Predict the 3D structure of the following.
Amino acid sequence: MLRDADNDGAHGGDRERARDGGRRPRGRRGPSRRPAGTFLLVLLLPALLPALLLVTATPASAHAVLRATDPADGTVLRTAPRHVTLAFTESVGLLTDSFRIYDPGNRRVRTGPAGHAAGRSDTARVTLPARLATGTYTVAWRVVSADSHPVSGALTFSVGKRTVAPAALPQERAEDGATTALHTIARYLAYLSLALLLGTAAFVAYCRPPTTAHLRTPALAAATTLLASTLAVYLLRAPYEEAASPTTAFSLSALTHTATTRPGRLLLLRLALLLLAAAAVTLLATRRVRLPRRAALAAATALAVALTLTWSASDHASAGVQVPAAIVSSTLHLLAMAAWLGGLAALLWTLRRAPEPAAALPASVPARFSRLAFTAVVVLVVTGVYQSWRGLGSWQALTDTTYGRTLLAKLAAVTALLLAAACSRTWTARLTRPAGAAVRARVPEPAMGPPLPELPPEPPPAPPLRLLRRSVLVEAVAAALVLALTTLLTSTVPGRAATESAAPSTPSAATGVQTASVTTIPFDTGAPGGHGKVQLTLDPGRVGTNSLQAVIYGPDGGLATVPGLRVTLTLPAQRLGPLDTRLTDRGGYWSTPAFTVPLPGTWTMKATVRVSDLDQVTVSAPVRVTR
């Protein structure tokens, strides 16, 4: 007769255990406890990474960049302006104290409420009093960009003449360290808990582990953390915008103001969705309501999409170019991130609870997660490339801006995550290999006589479940780092906006604020007291009709009068000019109301300054004229 060698080996194993007094062979015990230290590190890492964010994040990193001002910074005006208008690269929200204007005596000027110029959301305007004294005025401003981050700055302008001792520039409101720290930590915990909550749900729905009781604790912890962190972000919104202490978070005015802003309304919507989900889960758990599986999955998917929209509608995607496409891309990016990283944590928790033999955990569970992770990675790559292009704007911004360098760090962390995922796929394939894949050898056995001696047992193969558990631990570490860098990216000025802020301002008819080209040229006739500088303002600095104003500053830096001033323009590249601007003495300054510049390009502006009947000098400087 022939007997199956595998069965014989199994019986031999029973006899071997009997000889050993019933002890289990070495290497076949329950879950190994050696990686417990690494597992503890993974649990502590989400709590340690906010320290990285606090060290690397700059306070109040804003994404709206000031593009133009009216009056322009540092200009001297003949008459007092009626408004101060600021134009930004994206829409901005206004605060109750967005403008603070100080007169030449450093006293605060009473102004009207701030508003948007001509109904445009990317401008901020404040009305000035009808009469302003002669001298230099200082404007300190603070607004909130469309992606919910505050931005502030200051500028000066003069009426009639510059003040000999200009008003001291008011110090910009320093960010409160406690408010910034608490706000950053709360935002990171919100991202982390969202990934854990949605990822655990996706893992249960798609991977179908044999039991889900062990996942209730992390899911409940994630939901509670998400609810608490969202509430904390809402309470800290007003102090964060106003650069105030966190103790002001509970004031009625702060709470009502936050409720009127778009970020505040989105946070309230998130809280409502979480409470609605908690009520639905409670009803399902008590079996008061029963839903078919497909209906439950559809409702859970709709809830997940709505939750992620409360992020994408208030971050980078809500401002800039291609906003609708960016919001869709950001929502898919967050969902894929949650499915992969949160599902990874759920798989890690499941593997931690699983006994060592692979048969105790169905091989279909890690195999299904492997397919889920692959799909999520594809979505992350596609949406990540689009969002990187949208945020950077150019290859140079990848290395020249903080946003680009942070993005490179995130790409490095994602690469490490993908390498660890590749190892996990290898061990997953080992687990899913059929048990009968090995060739089953048959050995002859004599019909009579003693049985043949038993073959020595083969060494047990490397336990793939244990190795899979370790590779998933490495994945979890890299995933936590990716989440931290993602949070840091959302509080960093995008490369496109940073490049725009570094570039010189250009006129934009859409904003309603025309920019002027201001050129300052020093001169020195060589005579005593015959030196100073001439400031020339070509407005708007484009092809067509322009106005030109010239102001002379003497040796002491104050306004000076000269008996003669002639300004010409020459375009060397086209051999055009000199064109005489025909300036007229207006009593303290020189101007021409209408002067035509026929071509764009870099013109040479020559100014001949005559300080007396015998002393004069000609100086020049380039000026850029756009279309």
